[in-house]
Amino acid sequence: MIEITPETPVKAGIKPVDFRCGIDGLSRLCRSILSSNPRDGGVYVFRNRSAQSIKLLTYDGRGFWLCQYRLSSGKFSRWPTSSSDSATATLLAQELRTLLWGPHGKATHARPLHWQRVPLESLPIGAH
Q1: pTM of the model
Q2: Each residue of 64-98: pLDDT tens digit?
Q3: pLDDT (tens digit, 9 = 90+) per residue, 11-22?
Q4: What angle do CA 67, 68, 73 make, to 5 degrees?
């Protein structure tokens, strides 16, 4: 499980990258383009050319996590930009949430489900 806290450093690549890259390719991009060590505990966010898909790369101390999120329709419209020639943008954890789910958690794509524990007493007889 990837845990992103308010203290987690998040860096996004401004320009699209080739999504044929896996962990090794994105790690190289972290070093060369984002000037960062991919093993520093931060989360690195990349998008593809069509802006329909993003990849998150992070290192948890034992190994790398690589997650891909592809929209079934629409695009990631709030991608960070840079007023300078910088190839990277530093985001707050809340800004990453907004990037993924839209402002106020409302977006044109589905939100994650919120699960809650159901007490055993409320289950039908024989279900537990």
Answers
A1: 0.75
A2: 999 999 999 888 877 887 767 678 888 888 888 88
A3: 999 999 999 999
A4: 150
Question: Cβ contacts of residue 49 below 8 Å, gap of 6+?
Answer: 16
112/90 Cα distance (integer angstroms):
24
How far apart CA 99 and CA 79 sit, in angstroms, is 7
- The rounded mean pLDDT for the chain is 82
Q: Give one DSSP letter per residue of 3-23, joined into a string.
A: ---TTS-EEEESS---TT--H
d(CA 109, CA 87): 27
Place of tokens 């589905």: 110
User: Can you tell me the distance from the alpha carbon of 70 to that of 55, in angstroms, rounded to the nearest whole number?
Assistant: 9
Q: Which residues have C-beta within 8 Å of that of residue 128, sequence separation ≥ 6?
A: 120
Strand order of the β-sheet with 88-91 is 64-70, 53-59, 43-47, 10-13, 88-91
